[in-house]
Write a structure and sequence with these properties.
Layout (H helix, E strand, L loop, with lengths): L2 E3 L2 H9 L6 E5 L6 H6 L1 E6 L7 H13 L5 E3 L1 H7 L3 E4 L10 H11 L4 E4 L5 H14 L3 H22 L6 E8 L2 E6 L1 H7 L3 E3 L1 E3 L4 E2 L2 H6 L4 E4 L6 H14 L5 E4 L1 H4 L7 H12 L11 E3 L2
Helix pairs in contact: 6-7, 7-12
Length: about 290
């Protein structure tokens, strides 16, 4: 089966199901595993924001969306040349990927007949369900069932390790300029790690907030997990959070790797959060988290 992934989390799911050889097209953001971006055809491009500050990125996104413009560019010719049978995309967030409707319009124009599947999880349970769905669509249902069972077993191990312990109040910051509270599945990760999410929007999109509003929720710890950044970038942005929320413990975490992409590595995110909230109860996650304040 010839597969195209239009979001990084779908690419991770495809590889986790042992379908790397079937994957022919990816986006410029698909960096896990590294072979995906290096060896596959890039069918979706976007602006390089490495030289921009978080505030400048936010302004650019708002400007594009207000003008009705896409944040990503579909390389239609490259997509048509791949002749895919199945395309994995999403409608959950305009900032994260091309919506499925845009993809379907392009396929119709190009005369391609690929099936388009939109993966739109709102909770941790939904994320596990998307793995099952991809397994069904790719005729790898047994592999998907084993993968999900393994992930559930790891979640159960964390739950057992933190059972009966006090549950710290945790604010997860997904962006720093302006500050955004965590939404969708991220509060579920905090709960699974033995914490109580505050300044959060379970099952809903993350939303702008303020340092004053976050402080009013009286968090015991703040975790900085900016979308689009790994640990070093998160640590740099966490300095802003430490200034905005003085006196509170502030941790940075590999956002793209463990928190914001709805794929199998979210379970690693739960394990890393549990190591922050309950040191000694679960193995330390020194290479995935960093104490800032």
């Amino acid at each position: 089966m010839r597969l195209v992934s239009m979001l990084p989390s779908a690419t991770e799911i495809v590889y986790a199901l042992g379908l790397g050889d079937d994957l022919v097209g990816v986006t410029f953001e698909c960096d896990e595993p590294a072979a995906a971006r290096a060896e596959k055809t890039i069918v979706v491009g976007g602006r390089d924001t490495q030289g921009l500050t978080p505030g400048e990125i936010d302004a650019y996104v708002r400007q594009q969306l207000a003008a009705g413009e896409d944040l990503y560019t579909l390389h239609a010719g490259a997509l048509a040349a791949l002749d895919p049978e199945l395309i994995l995309t999403q409608d959950l967030c305009q900032v994260c990927s091309l919506p499925s409707g845009r993809v379907e319009d392009a396929l119709s124009y190009l005369g391609c007949r690929a099936d388009v599947v939109s993966l739109d999880p709102h909770s941790l349970a939904d994320v596990l369900d998307t793995i099952t769905e991809v397994g069904g669509r790719t005729r790898t249902g047994d592999r998907a069932a084993r993968l999900v069972a393994g992930l559930r077993a790891r979640l159960a191990a964390v739950a057992a390790a933190v059972a009966g312990r006090p549950r710290p109040r945790v604010a997860v910051v997904e962006w720093v300029d302006p500050p955004f509270s965590a939404g969708h599945w991220v509060p579920d990760l905090v709960v699974a790690a033995g914490g109580t999410p505050v300044s959060a929007r379970p099952g809903q999109p993350s939303a702008p907030t303020s340092w004053t509003d976050i402080a009013a929720e009286k968090p015991d710890v703040v975790v900085v997990s900016p979308c689009g950044y790994h640990l070093d970038g998160a640590a740099e942005q966490a300095l802003t959070v430490a200034e905005g929320l003085p006196g509170l413990p502030v941790w940075a975490i590999d956002g793209d790797g463990l928190i914001v992409r709805p794929g199998p590595r979210l379970v690693q995110g739960v394990e890393a959060l549990a190591a922050i909230l309950h040191p000694g109860a679960v193995p330390a996650a020194a290479d995935r988290v960093r104490r800032i304040a």
